[in-house]
Amino acid sequence: MAYAIATSNLTKSFGRNNVVQSLNLAVPYNGIYGFLGPNGAGKTTTIKMIMNILKPTSGAVTVMGKPSVELGPEQLAQIGYVSENQDMPDWMTVKYFLNYCRTMYPQWDQKFCQELLTQFDLPLHQRLRDLSRGMKMKAALISSLAYRPKLLILDEPFSGLDSLVREELISGFLEITRDQDWTILVSSHDLDEVERLADWIGIIDRAELKIQEETASLIQRFKRVEVALGSPSAATVKTPESWLRFQEDQMRVTFVESCYQPGETEKKVRELFPQESSIQVFPQTLKEIFVALARQYKISNL
Amino acid sequence: MTTIICSLFFKDARRLRILLSAWGIVLAFKLFLYVGGAHFFSSNIEYQMIAPLFYKVVDFLEKVLVVVIIPLCLHEDPCVGTSAFWFSRPLSRRAVIATKALLLGIFLVLIPLLAEAGMLLVSQVAIKYVFLAVPEIILERLSFILPLVLLASLTRRFSDYAKVGAIMVGAWIMLGMCYGILYMVAPKVGQMISGLWSQKQWWGLDVSPSFIQSTKIVGDGLGIIFYAALIIHQHVTRYTARTIRWAVLAYFIIFSVGIMWSIDFLSPQAMAGRKAKVPVEAIQAQFDAGHMFIADGQQEDTPTKIIRSRLLLSDFPSRYFAVPHTESTIQMWYSDGQRLESWGMDFMPMGEFMVDDARIPAMQSALGAAIIKNPWRGQFLYNNIFESGRNDFEKFKSRPGTYAVDAEIDLFDYRIAAAVPLKNGAFQNQGQRQVSILGLLKQENDVGVFFIERNVNMVFDRNGSKQSMMSRMQNREIDGVYVLRNSVTQEAVLPVMDLGQKVSQVADIYNEGLRLQVRAKRIDFDFAQAGIVPSEDWLRQAELVRLEPGLQESVVKKIRIKDFALPAVTTDPDPAAHNSAGSSYPSSAYGRKWDAKPAKDISMYPIPAQLGDEKMIHDYKYNYLAKDDHKAFALSISGGIYGYCYGQKNEAEAKACAWGQCNNRRCTKDPACKILSIDGKIVP
Asked: What is the pLDDT of residues A9-19, one digit of tens each?
C-alpha cells in the first residue's frame, strides 16, 4: 500500500536524548490522520523531519514517494503546513500576506481563497501581529489551503485556542475538507478534537509510536462492557488480555474490551461469569479508549 | 524563480522601507557633506573646519543603520532554527540567498558606489581616479557588510544578533584590557605578544603605507571570500554549528595571513623595476658631532641610555633627500674584538617627513630658478643612533670604535604637485591633488595663506602617495611642503614652520581614510627671515606651490663610521627640549634665528601645565617657548581652541599676535577666551 507519509525506523536525537525513536509511521492517502501524544512526546519533531526542517539522526521519511531530505520547492508546493510553532511574518496585513503566499504557488485558487476568507471572516487590512491567536491560525490555514495542497500537515493547529474558537475552526475545517481529496496529518494532544476529524489514529509517547490504526476500527474494537451478575462471583477469574480496566464488585463486572466482536465477547463473558444476568455493551470515545490503553501501554495521560 | 526572487525582494524592501529611506537620507547627507566640503562651501572656513566632524558623525550613523538593516533583512527569512515561515514554503534556498544578496547588494553596495562615484565626478576628480575608486568602494563595503551578514545568518532574531555582537565587541575590549594588564604585570609576556604584530619589522620588511594597504586588502579580500562562502554554506545547509566552527577557523586564517603577509603589491609604480642609479658606495654617512644628545630610557626593567644625533648622508644628487632605516642591528666594533649591540631600534622612530633643513636643497632643485630666500630655519630631524644598557654605556662611552649598521636609504625627490596663483578663488586641479585659495592674511612679518587642499587618496593608485591610519601612526606618511614662489623675481619663501598635516588638525583627523580628503589650511610664510617685503605686487605675482616628495630609489648601504665614540656628554644645545619632547625635535621650540644664538644663551621653559584646558595642555606641553626670543605668549580657549605666538618684539605684539591667531579660529566669539600666559608666566 502506498502511503502519503511513511517513516522507517525514524530516530532523532539531541545529544543523548532520543526525541523520536524507531518510528514507523504510515499515513495513507486521502484521509485524515490524527497524530496524538502528550506534550513532549515527539510529535512536532517527527513532523519537522517529515517537512525536512530537521534532519533525522537515523531512519528515513518518504513524503508522497520522495525522501523528505530531498523535498524541494516542487514538492513543498503540494504540501500545506500549519504549525503553532511557525513564525509568521507578523508585520504583513492579511491581504499582503495572502498575496505574498500566492506568488509562491502556481496553482493558487484565488476564488477558493476568497471563499475561505468569507468563511473565516478575516479582516484583510489588519496586520497579523494585531490578530488574535485564533484569527492568526485562520490566516495560516487559508494560506495553506488556498492552493489545494495534496498533503496538509497541521501541527497542533488548535492548541491554545479557547473552546469557542476551536469549535469554530474545527467546524470550518471539516466543512472545507469534506469534499476535498486531501491527505491530512493533524497532530494534537487533544483527543476530542481529533476524534471528530481523524480517519486514522497514531499515538506516540515518549518517542515511540504506541498505536496506529483506523479510527473506525479502533472505535469498533473498543467497547465498554458491563455485566450484571445474578450472584456474587465465587472465585477470582482469569480474564483475557484484551479486557482492559477490568473491575469487579460483588454483583457487577465492568471492563473495556479491546477486541470486541459481537457475540464472541458476550460468549466469553458467559463462560467466565455463568451467573451473569445481563450484558450491556457501550461504545467508547477516543478519550476513553486512550485511558484504557494508557494503562496497558503505560502511555502518559493526555 | 525570477518571480519568487522579485516577490521576496519587494517583500523585504517593503518591510525595510522606513529604515532604507532613513539610510538613504543619511547617505545623501553624508555625500552632500563629502562633496560639499570640496565644492559648495569652499569659501567658508568655519564650515570647512566643522564639516569633517559632521561627516564622521553622519558616516557613523550610516554604519549604525547598516548594522541594523542587515539583520532585519536576513531575519525576515532566517536560516537558523526550525520555525521560519519559509522553511515549509516552496522557496528554494538559492532563491532566498539570491534575494538577500540582491537587496543588500543594491542598497548597501551599488547605490553607495554610484553615489560616491557621482560625487567624485561632481568634485572634478579625474575619471581615472573615479575608476580606481570603484574596486576600493566595493571592497570597503563588502568587507564591512559580509561579517555582519554572516552574524545575522547565524542568528534568528535581532536580539540574538545584538547580544552576540555585543559579546564579541565586549570580548575584544576585555582582551585588550587583559593585554594591557598583562603588559603592566608581566611586561616580558606582554612584549612577546605584541611582537606578533611587529613580525614584519622583525623580518625587516618595509612597513610603508602601501604595504599596510596591501596587507589590509589581502585580509579584506580573504574575509570577503571566506565570509561569502560561509553565508552560502549556512543558507544552503543550515548546519549552524559547523558554520560557526568554520567561521572561527576562517577568522584565524585571515588574522594569520594578516600577520604573515609580506608582499607589497601596491608599492608606488615609480619604484617598480627601477634600477638604482645612485652608486651606493659613493654615499657618505657621518654624525653631526655638534648635535649629540644622551637621553635616559628604559627597556623592561633595565635603565638604558639612548643616543640621538643627526645622521648626515651626503654624496648623492642634490635633487634627492635621504631617509635612512636600519636593516640590521646597530653595532659598535672595538679594536680588541669586543662588540656592543644596540638594543633594537630604527633610525626614524618619529617624524619621518617633518621638514628637515637638510632637505632644502632637494626643494630648491624642484623649484628651479626661484631661489629659496629663507633656507635656514634650524629645523632638524634627529635619528636614534644607539641604545644600550647604562652599565654598558658607562663602560664603552668615549671609547673609539667603528659604528656599523646596514641601512636602507630611501631617496626622495620633490616635485611640484600644484602651483596656484595667490589670489582669492584660484583653483588648480592637478591629478591627485586640488588646491583652491581662500584668502590671504598679511601681518607685519608673515603672510598667512588660507586654502583648501583636496587630495584624492585611492588605495589602488600606484602613482599617488599613500596614506592610512597605520602609516600615520608609524610616521611613515609622506607629506609635502608648501612654498610661495614668485616667478618674476625668481624668489621663493618657505613657511614660518611647516607642521605639515598638523596645520589643520581637526580636518586631518576626520579626513582619515576618505577617498577625497578635504583640508582647510593656513600656512604662514616667513618674509622677515627671507628679507622680502610682501608687497601687493610681489603677492600678485606669486603662486602657492606644493612640493610633493616621491620615492625614487632605495639602496642598502653598509654604514661604517670609523673612530666614532659613544658620546660621554650631550653636545646638543637644547637638552631641555629633548627631555620632554622625546625623540622628535620640536620645531616650534626654535626661534628663527637659531644659528645666531650661542647655545649657552638659550634656556627654555614650558607653558604652565596647570592651566587651561587639559587637552590643550596635553597637545602643547611639549612646546617650549624661546625665552631669548622674548615675549612668548600663549592663549587658552575653552573647547581646545588655542592661539599662541612666539618670537615677537614685545609683550603687546606677542599678545596681539596670539589673539590674532586665535581670532582666525573664531574663538573671539567664545566668552571663555582668555590669556593663559606671557613668557611662561601665568596671567592671573
From this structure: 999 998 888 88
The predicted pLDDT at position B571 comes to 63
Q: Tell me the pLDDT tens digit for each residue of B102-135.
A: 999 999 999 999 999 998 888 888 899 999 999 9
Q: What is the DSSP letter of B523?
A: E
Secondary structure (3-state) at B307? strand
Q: Does A89 touch chain B (CB under 8 A)?
A: yes
How many whole angstroms separate alpha carbon A278 and alpha carbon B528?
134
Show the cell assigned to A27: 499515513
Average pLDDT of the residues in A110-122: 88
Question: For testing the chain A interface, which of B15, B80, B85 should be mutated: the one with the most A CBs within 10 Å?
Answer: B85
The neighbouring-strand residues paired with B331 are B341, B404
Cβ of A89 within 8 Å of Cβ of B7? The answer is no
E-strand ranges in chain A read 3-14, 17-23, 26-28, 32-36, 58-63, 66-67, 79-83, 151-155, 183-188, 200-205, 208-214, 223-229, 243-248, 252-257, 276-283
Q: Do B88 and A81 touch (CB under 8 A)?
A: yes
Q: What stretch of H or E contains A217?
A: helix A215-221
- The alpha carbon of residue B222 and the mean position of all alpha carbons in its chain are separated, in whole angstroms, by 25
Q: Which among A54, A100, A105 is the nearest to B11, CB-wise?
A: A100
Please answer yes or no on whether B91 and A72 come within 8 Å at the CB atom.
no
What proportion of chain A, given as a percentage, has pLDDT over 70?
97
Partners of A67 in the beta sheet? A62
Query: Angle, to 10 degrees, between the axis of helix A133-145 and the axis of helix A163-178?
Result: 10
Q: Could you tell me which of B352, B384, B355, B588 has the C-alpha nearest to residue B472?
A: B352
The rounded radius of gyration (Å) of the Cα atoms in chain B is 28
Which residues, 6 or more positions from B474, have their beta carbon under 8 angstroms from its beta carbon? B207
3-state SS assignment for residue B402:
strand
The cell numbers describing B165, all together, are: 555582537
Is B633 in contact with B655 (CB distance < 8 Å)?
yes
Using DSSP's 3-state secondary structure scheme, residue B30 falls into: helix
What residue ranges of chain B have pLDDT lower than 50? 202, 204, 271-273, 350-353, 469-477, 498-509, 574-642, 663-668
Choose among A170, A220, A161: nearest CA to A193. A170
Question: What sign has the CA pseudo-torsion A204, A210, A214, A218?
Answer: negative
Q: CB-CB: which of A85, A91, A101 is closest to B15?
A: A91
Query: What would you report as the CA-atom Rg of chain A, rounded to the nearest whole angstrom?
Result: 23
CB B495 within 8 A of CB B240: no
Please provide the size of chain A in residues. 302
Give the span between the Cα atoms of A107 and A70, in whole angstroms: 22
- The alpha carbon dihedral of A88, A89, A91, A94 has a sign of negative
Top-confidence residue, A242 or A48: A48
User: How many other C-beta atoms can be found within 10 angstroms of the C-beta atom of residue B533?
Assistant: 9
Percent of chain A residues past pLDDT 90, beyond the cut = 34
Alpha-carbon distances of A198 from A28, A184, A191, rounded to whole Å: 12, 9, 10
**Best to test chain A binding among B8, B88, B93 (most A CBs inside 10 Å):** B88
Q: How far apart are CA B354 and CA B643, in angstroms?
A: 22
Using an 8 Å Cβ cutoff, are A46 and A20 in contact? yes
Question: Angle at the Cα of B64 (from B62 to B65), degrees rounded to 5?
Answer: 65
DSSP 3-state assignment of B138? helix
What the block records as the C-alpha cell of B508 is: 586631518
Q: Spell out a b/e string for A207-241, using b for 16 or more CB atoms within 10 Å of the CB, else e.
A: bbbbbbebbeebbebbbbbebebeeebeeeeebee
Write the CA distances from A59 to A33, A211, B93, integer angstroms: 21, 19, 24
Q: Is B383 left (phi over 0), alpha (psi -120 to 50) or beta?
A: beta
Which residues fall within 8 angstroms of residue B324, CB to CB, at 6 or more apart? B285, B311, B313, B347, B348, B383, B407, B408, B409, B410, B557
